[in-house]
Design goal:
single chain; Nucleoside Triphosphate Pyrophosphohydrolase; 7-stranded mixed sheet; binds zinc ion
Length: 203
């Protein structure tokens, strides 16, 4: 059970209130109305592929820190609360692997309840296809222990490649670029995004 004693909006002591079919932690202070609906987070990760001769190689990073230190995965992380997803995933790819890549489309997402994937919050994790632009894999040696481009065959010989990452790479290799959910330009693209099927407009 979540330990929350004070309202994050008005600092009054929290109580409980029946809302939406269940009892929830809530603030009963007049004029506040805060209700705790749970702990949610949004993650994103990018599949960046590029040709190597007749083969295709995909970008992987090795986690340097727990949870799951030593395992390999496609680069990614949490989106900040004030950051749109497509920019979050481009940032994570650049921060973790030193690769500049631009979002093409969303190929899959995972919904995991709190704790089931090792995280503290119920999480939606989007897997993007990105177009490689420039750079060679680099890593900071701390959060990320190693980074590189590998073919699926090579990944078979690397210990601890996350199954979901390999699955995401196969989703990308088995579908046409842009065939997933693409950002369409409606409204302010820096504050809200709509993802739809078909050819997306540029961000
Ligand atoms: Zn309150």
């Amino acid at each position: 059970m979540t330990r929350m004693n004070y309202c994050p909006q008005c600092a009054s002591p929290l109580a409980r209130r029946f809302d939406g079919g269940r009892e929830r932690i809530a603030c009963l202070a007049e004029g506040c109305g805060f209700i705790y609906f749970g702990d949610f987070s949004i993650g994103c990760a990018g599949v960046v592929v590029r040709p190597r001769g007749n083969e295709i190689e995909a970008l992987l990073v090795q986690r340097g820190q727990n949870p799951f230190a030593g395992t390999w995965q496609i680069p990614g992380g949490y989106a900040e609360h004030d950051e749109v997803l497509s920019l979050a995933v481009e940032r994570e790819v650049q921060e973790e692997a030193g690769i500049v890549a631009t979002v093409s489309d969303v190929v899959a997402f995972r919904h995991a309840l709190a704790g089931s994937s090792g995280g503290p919050s119920t999480n939606v994790y989007f897997i993007f296809r990105l177009n490689y632009v420039s750079g060679e894999p680099q890593h900071d040696g701390d959060e990320i222990a190693a980074a590189g481009f590998y073919t699926l065959d090579e990944m078979e010989d690397i210990e601890g490649v996350q199954g979901l990452s390999k699955w995401g790479i196969r989703q990308v290799l088995g579908s046409k670029s842009g065939s997933g959910l693409s950002v369409t330009s409606m409204g302010d693209p820096n504050t809200w995004q709509i993802y739809g099927l078909g050819e997306g407009d540029s961000r």
